[in-house]
Design a protein that fits this description.
about 200 residues; alpha/beta; Rossmann fold; 6-stranded parallel beta sheet; 9 helices; about 15% strand
Length: about 200
Amino acid sequence: MLDFESQPFVEIARRLEMRGGHGWIAVLSPPSSRALALDELQTELRSILQVPTRVVPLDTFTFEGLREALQQPNDDAVVLSAGAELTPEKWSRLDIMRSALERIGPVIFWLAPNDVANLTGSAPNIRSLIGASIFIAGPDGGIMTEEERRERLKELVQYFGLSNEEIVRRAESKELPPEPEFVEWLVLLGRGDLV
């Protein structure tokens, strides 16, 4: 079963190091302190991979500009930060030009839960390049504690008035809309295979 693992940034960087400093991964950012967590991720990538690391915001680049930015240079670590303006249509266009984005250095997608829904639904080729390498960052960039996970699941149950079992059943029968909260809910239940 495909699942999104909760990993500290140092472990995410080590996984890239084991791949020879190559590959595509996605990291789900914590809901709070997103900028601080991004700084911590960059620090770990620089430290472990021993290459420069830069952030490229996906929502402000033209796709031609993005291709150029990824290729000059093409051997550093690039964190592609998706924002709220990255619509399903933009994800789809990004997916079409996937091969133009391939490079020597690693590509790390920095995503919020709603970005994962758009990635999965609108960019299947990029999703296939990422494969099972989707990780959840806890609030401090580390592993989300079991208590934090239970508390967030409790909040979702109370807010939506649905049980965890009902969410899984609806996702299995394709009745669950790809809303960010539902994607997050499935990930927290360890059912990333249903996203």
